[in-house]
């Protein structure tokens, strides 16, 4: 597809960018680490033991069993893109074109796709805590959140560190669910940022599906909602339950002098990644999805 670049006739120090939210899942990138150096898969040791029994003064301690098996985590997603901008096009846009394109690409495409893939991967993982329900309203959303917390508590998921991701379409509903008394405040902020010690992250609805399709970039690019996908109303994640692995995430920039093929700035981006829910910690993910 050919580039479409309008050259500057009058310079104003403003770039008309497309609004895009940054990554919603980035805050969980450092929750747990796995080193994929030299391989495309990692084996994680899962250990379980048996519980207590009665001590006998005749025979001593009751015997117990220890089970240790290896859980395999294998990277599956390898994505990339290349852009080129002519030296003169960049010069005649006062040096703004190349920098604007690369930055906008990360916001418009990389962050949304990463979020959508990760949420879909967690939501589709077998045996995570899941509830199917109709679209939530201001009268039902609080009860749904409390039930999610109860289910995670029952499964002894650590309370500390849980994160509540809410579909941005439900932002007005959760605000309406709680009554507030306003005084003579000069500024009013009705947005809820925390619920029962869980920080709230509002996720754009276009990134919050139970399944997505990653396009190959030949006839279409980025991602689409999968045909069978449902919208996610909210998701609670204990970050220690998931692994967001980026083995290789590298932008490469070549100046026109370095580019031997054409007199152009060249930008190449490659991302090799995947996301996982640990087998022993599936209760650390609670998914509330819409039936519609």
UniProtKB/TrEMBL annotation:
Domain of life from the UniProt record: Bacteria
Protein name (record): Phage major capsid protein
């Amino acid at each position: 597809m050919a580039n479409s670049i309008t050259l500057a006739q009058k310079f104003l120090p403003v770039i008309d960018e497309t609004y895009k939210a940054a990554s919603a899942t980035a805050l969980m990138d450092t929750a747990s680490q796995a080193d994929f150096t030299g391989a495309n898969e990692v084996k994680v040791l899962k250990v379980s033991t048996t519980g207590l029994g009665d001590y006998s003064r005749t025979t001593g301690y009751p015997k117990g069993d220890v089970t240790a098996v290896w859980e395999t985590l294998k990277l599956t997603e390898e994505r990339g893109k290349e852009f080129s901008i002519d030296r003169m096009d960049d010069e005649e846009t006062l040096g703004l074109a190349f920098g604007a394109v690369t930055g906008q690409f990360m916001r418009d495409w990389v962050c949304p796709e990463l979020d959508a893939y990760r949420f879909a991967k967690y939501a589709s993982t077998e045996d995570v805590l899941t509830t199917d329900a109709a679209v939530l309203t201001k009268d039902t959303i609080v009860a749904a959140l409390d039930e999610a917390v109860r289910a995670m508590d029952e499964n002894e998921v650590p309370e500390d560190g849980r994160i509540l991701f809410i579909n941005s379409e439900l932002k007005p509903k959760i605000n309406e669910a709680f009554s507030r008394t306003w005084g003579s405040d000069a500024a009013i902020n009705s947005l809820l940022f925390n619920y029962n010690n869980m920080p709230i992250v509002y996720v754009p609805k276009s990134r919050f599906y139970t399944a997505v399709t990653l396009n190959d970039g030949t006839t279409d690019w980025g991602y689409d909602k999968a045909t069978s996908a449902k919208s996610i109303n909210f998701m609670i994640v204990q970050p220690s339950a998931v692994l967001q692995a980026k083995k290789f995430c590298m932008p490469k920039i070549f100046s026109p002098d370095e580019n031997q093929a054409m007199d152009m700035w060249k930008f190449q981006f490659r991302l090799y990644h995947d996301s996982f829910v640990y087998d022993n910690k599936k209760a650390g993910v609670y998914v509330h999805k819409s039936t519609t």
